[in-house]
Amino acid sequence: MGKAGASARVTEEWLRRVEAEYQSTAAAATMALWLVQIGASPDLVKDALRIAREELGHSTLSHRVYVAAGGKAGLALDRGALTLPTSACEPLEHDVARLCVDMFCLGETVAVRLFKELRQRCDVPVARRALDRILRDEVGHREFGWTLLGWLLDHPGLGPGIRALVVRELPASFGRLRALYGADANRTETALPREDARWGLMPAARYVDLLQATLDRDYVPRFHRLGIDARTAHLAQAGPRG
């Protein structure tokens, strides 16, 4: 056990969150650079830079929780995962669209719902402060993604090609998201020890349930407003169920 009764699972999860926030920082900073390179509106560039700063702040907050829980190990970042390659044979706008959909429209949208749930039974002060701040920021990150996607789809000349790209690749994007949260394989874990929940953890099955709720309440209507059928894309990825 770590400090204040924290389990090894608590320290491992918060260290994973520190590393994930570093990855998000790198991705947001890359997005800012790409937006400069394609001549995006200054407001979008400023928003991406702000998000990079906030993600770095989240890593700091997460590390405080990790240390408070008794964690002592240093970061072991995969440097390759912090570098986002571009597609040499396609316009940079296509890479921007891919990152926008995967990280912001999909990732940050479900993150809002996930962090709200993680807060529900979290009452360890250092962990609750971190989750409060992260949740508040994630709402803005989500809205940035949908604003940027709308801007890309309306891009003079490139908009139709970007729309075709998103429609074509959305099933694979959903597949990566389902793999990240364990799809149906994790439905068996439906409860956690109370002490783990107090530190801001939840059972794996809740991730799966919240991802489905995000599909129904967020992805489908938001993509629909942009003229994209997200439910068909999700079903194409998920395949038949037994």
Class computed from helices, strands and strand pairing? mainly alpha
Cα distance, first to last residue? Answer: 40 Å
Quickly name the level 1 CATH class: Mainly Alpha
Largest sheet geometry: none
Query: Within the CATH hierarchy, at the fold level, what is the topology?
Result: Ferritin
Rg calculated over all Cα atoms: 18 Å
- The gross shape turns out to be globular
Query: Mean pLDDT across all residues, rounded?
Result: 92
Tell me what the CATH architecture is. Answer: Up-down Bundle
Topology as H/E string? Answer: HHHHHHHH
**Helical proportion, percent range:** over 70%
Please indicate the count of domains.
1
* Percent range for β-strand residues: under 5%
In CATH, the homologous superfamily goes by the name Ferritin, core subunit, four-helix bundle
| Secondary structure: number of strands | 0
Q: How many helices in DSSP terms?
A: 8
Unreliable stretches covering 5 or more consecutive residues: none
Feature tags:
242 residues; mainly alpha; Ferritin; 0% strand
Describe the SSE topology.
Elements: H1 8-37, H2 42-68, H3 92-119, H4 125-153, H5 159-180, H6 194-198, H7 204-225, H8 230-238
Helix pairs in contact: 1-2, 1-3, 2-4, 3-4, 3-5, 3-7, 5-8
Overview of the molecule:
- The chain has helices at 8-37, 42-68, 92-119, 125-153, 159-180, 194-198, 204-225, 230-238.
- With 242 residues, it is mainly α.
- It has a single domain, classed as Ferritin (Up-down Bundle), CATH 1.20.1260.
- The longest helix is centred in the N-terminal third of the chain and has 30 residues, at 8-37.
- The protein is globular, with a radius of gyration of 18 Å.
- It starts with 7 loop residues before the first helix and ends with a helix.
